[in-house]
Specification:
DUF1294 domain-containing protein, membrane, transmembrane helix, nucleic acid binding, mainly alpha, Cold_shock_CspA, single chain
Length: 90
Amino acid sequence: MVQALSIWLAAASLLTFAAYWRDKRAARAGQWRTPEATLLLLGLAGGWPGGWLARRCFRHKTRKQPFRLLFWLGALANLAALAQLWRWLD
């Protein structure tokens, strides 16, 4: 169970990192952007560490306050779910 969860979180983080990278590239080129809701859902699905790293690396989505708040609420929800799962497995 722990191994499967680790693989899921790593894959979700990589996918989320790539989505932020693509969105930043599109923003610079004036092309179609990835909706914020998609980025937030990827983070909520476990990819928030990749989203956090991408935000730091690309300086992307770092100033928009509603997005920042929702991002961190999703991260906290993930951490709470992981803590609960850890208790159940113990």
